[in-house]
Design a protein that fits this description.
This protein has about 350 residues and is α/β, with parallel strands linked by helices. It is built from 14 helices and eight strands. It has an eight-stranded parallel β-barrel, surrounded by six helices. Helix 4 packs parallel to helix 6. It is elongated. The structure holds phosphoenolpyruvate and manganese (II) ion (MN). The site of manganese (II) ion has 4 residues, from loops.
């Protein structure tokens, strides 16, 4: 099939391509499965990189832990046949060493590794002086500094091409997602690393097939640079993550139906309209801040009265009253209950802090 160009050139090109699409099975199972997946993926003409897990960090022992090094020649073979660069997950120095020996093109660090600075550092130390792109998934729990800390560790050992993968955060209790997206966290990472590649992994966010499309679309609307999605030739019988995998052909359909948007436009009319609306938003934000400042000044006065009359800062009834009224008004204004609660909690806490300072001055 496609002739393989010199590796680095192909990978370098892919790294810059937008959107960048990485796909392949959760786990490499057999040589036939890896090669058939790769062949069917390349036929869609929409996939840039082949992924497969070969060392699977599983929550409990006894679950399928990946086939290990013996899958590395299968990946190499799939690359030879299809021309697709390949990526595998690494969690130890030995994994890195093995992957490099079999010409893996891109490495990724999984969510269970990003949580552990010792492991991330071990992987980084094995990468000193090696030119290979590395993708790092968010840690399992919403501790954003572990994510950016991992990136800093990679950059410190000289990895030039670092990318981020958003795969959602684990949540206590039942939610509609396997891993809650908490979109504000990848948005914050974009603010911290504006030039860095950011991919979304809807498969591990959703944990099912039905929501994949809408989560992928949401990430595109938030200006992500591409997707990592799990595909399998026989999803129902996959050895891991069966519920969330789709066939290569279904992936192609899904990618076709997504609406790709760009962050910027040169259209004059659009730019003028946008600038006007943004000016209005800036003005309102400014007024809101001024008003909140005034609100705190009044809270300070109340604090002084409470102090001289020896009254507690918190009066639960008064607080309930404020919140109930705000929720009612918020609903009429089309503001969600979640937003009103968070907003009033924040304002209330700031008031309490102000009064606390006055009381104890
Ligand atoms: C995977 O990509 O198969 C995987 C194990 O993902 P995560 O690290 O996001 O759980
Ligand atoms: Mn998986």
């Amino acid at each position: 099939m496609t002739e393989v160009k010199t590796l680095n050139e192909t990978v370098r090109e892919k790294w810059k391509k937008r959107p960048l699409i990485i796909s392949g099975p959760c786990s490499a199972e057999t040589e036939e499965q890896v090669i058939e997946t790769a062949t069917r993926l390349v036929k869609t003409g929409k996939v840039d990189v082949l992924r497969a897990g070969i060392w699977k960090p599983r929550t409990k022992p006894g679950m399928f832990e990946g086939v290990g090094v013996k899958a590395l020649p299968w990946m190499l073979q799939a690359k030879k046949i299809t021309g697709l660069p390949v990526t595998v997950e690494v969690a130890t120095a030995k994994h890195v060493e093995d992957a490099l020996q079999f010409d893996v093109d891109i490495l990724w660090i999984g969510a269970r590794t990003t949580v552990n600075p010792f492991s991330v550092q071990e992987v980084c130390d094995a990468l000193r002086g090696v030119e290979i792109p590395v993708l790092i998934k968010n840690p399992i729990h919403p501790e954003i500094d572990l994510w950016s800390g991992g990136i800093e560790r990679l950059q410190k050992v000289g990895v030039k091409q670092v990318g981020m993968i958003h795969r959602g955060f684990s949540n206590y209790g039942n939610t509609e997602y396997r891993n809650a997206p908490m979109w504000h966290l990848p948005i914050e990472m974009k603010r911290r690393f504006p030039e860095m590649l950011l991919l979304c992994d809807p498969s591990h966010i959703c944990g099912n097939r039905t929501m994949l499309q809408s989560v992928a679309q949401k990430s595109i609307d938030l200006d992500f640079d591409g997707l990592m999605i799990e595909t399998h030739i026989d999803p129902d019988n996959a050895w891991s993550d069966a519920k969330q995998q789709i066939t290569p052909e279904r992936l192609a359909e899904m990618l076709n139906d997504l609406v790709w948007r760009s962050e910027n436009s040169n259209e004059k009319e659009f730019l003028t309209a946008l600038a006007t609306l943004r000016e209005q938003i800036n003005h309102i934000d400014d007024e809101l801040l001024t008003l909140i400042g005034q609100r705190m000044k009044i809270a300070d006065k109340i604090g002084a009265y409470k102090k001289s009359n020896n009254i507690t800062i918190l009066q639960t009834n008064r607080w309930n009253d404020i919140l109930t009224k705000a929720l009612k008004k918020g609903e009429a204004l089309g503001l969600s209950k979640e937003f009103i609660t968070k907003y009033f909690d924040a304002v209330h806490l700031e008031s309490i802090n102000h009064q606390n300072k006055i009381m104890n001055d």
